[in-house]
Amino acid sequence: MGLTCFFKQVSCDLMAYCRHAHRTTIELADVELLMKRQGLITDTQSLHSLVEKYLPLEYRQEIIPTVQAGNKIVLK
């Protein structure tokens, strides 16, 4: 019950951010803003450090961009 309420509130908050920006798609900036407001992201704790701390390598590679030859940044 509590987990359902939590995710329902998170989705409502993210939808509100999208509506405020006149968008229909949730962007990374929306998630980061919500996590900052929840106190999960701080000056000393970034989103990337949370990803590296809690997600396995195969998921981290999908989320965190990597730099290839020629300074090309790609997501896998």
How many helical stretches?
4
- Element pattern in H and E: HHHHEE
| Distance, first to last CA | 35 Å
Radius of gyration, in Å, reads 15 Å
* Range of strand content: 5-15%
Largest sheet: 2 strands, antiparallel
Task: Give the spatial strand order of the biggest sheet.
Answer: 1-2
- Average of per-residue pLDDT values: 86
Helix content bin: 55-70%
- Category by helix and strand content: mainly alpha
- List how many beta strands DSSP finds: 2
Unreliable runs: none
Tell me, briefly, the overall form: globular
GO biological process, one term: chromosome segregation
Subcellular location: Chromosome; Nucleus
Keywords: Chromosome, Nucleus
Family: Belongs to the CENP-T/CNN1 family.
How would you describe this protein?
With 76 residues, the protein is mostly helical. The chain is 58% helix and 8% strand. The chain is built from four helices and two strands, in the order H-H-H-H-E-E. It has helices at residues 2-20, 28-37, 47-54, 57-63; strands at residues 66-68, 72-74. Strands 1-2 form a two-stranded antiparallel ribbon. Strand 1 (66-68) and strand 2 (72-74) form a beta hairpin. The longest helix is centred in the first third of the chain and has 19 residues, at 2-20. The radius of gyration is 15 Å and the shape is globular.
List keywords for this structure.
globular; mainly alpha; two-stranded antiparallel sheet; 76 residues; CENP-T/H4_C; chromosome; 2 strands
